[in-house]
Amino acid sequence: MLETRNLTKSFGGLVAVRNVSLTFEKGKLSSIIGPNGAGKTTFFNLLTGSFPPTSGQIFFKGEETTQFSPPEIFRRRIVRTFQISSIFPDLSVRKHVEIAAQGRYRSSNSPWGRLTLTRKEIQEKAEATLETIGLQD
Questions:
Q1: Are residues 17 and 68 in the same domain?
Q2: What is the pLDDT of residues 54-77, one digit of tens each?
Q3: 86: in domain
Q4: Residue 102 has what pLDDT?
Q5: Is 34 helix (H, G, I), strand (E, B) or coil?
Q6: Going by DSSP bridges, is the β-strand pair 55-60/14-24 parallel, antiparallel, or unpaired?
Q7: Which residues of 43-63 are buried (b: 16+ CB within 10 A; e: fewer)?
Q8: Residue 120 sits in which domain range?
């Protein structure tokens, strides 16, 4: 689904991402982990076109996207979201996941679009997500 080949990004003498070759398979959960300063954010900025790579290639569904502009990449539904540790501080993790599921299962991209799932189905999707990532308790 998504692949990088020898992806590198340098900022002057600093190499933030060096020769990263990864393959992300459709339907498989993957993670990029590492300490602060390891280049994770730079890597995501390369994937979304926010930064042009110094060298290497990026492919999405077999199509090279390395030189695409951010809007061209966005149209392929490759986007970056930002970490927010707590949107609603008084809600449980389960309720946060249910809210996210409600946003995903709307008939349009608008927050006012009609839900395409019942309340029970939203709760089941949230529960399955929490189980997948080990946070059901």
A1: yes
A2: 999 999 999 999 999 988 898 888
A3: no
A4: 79
A5: coil
A6: unpaired
A7: bbbbbbbebebeebebebeee
A8: 93-132
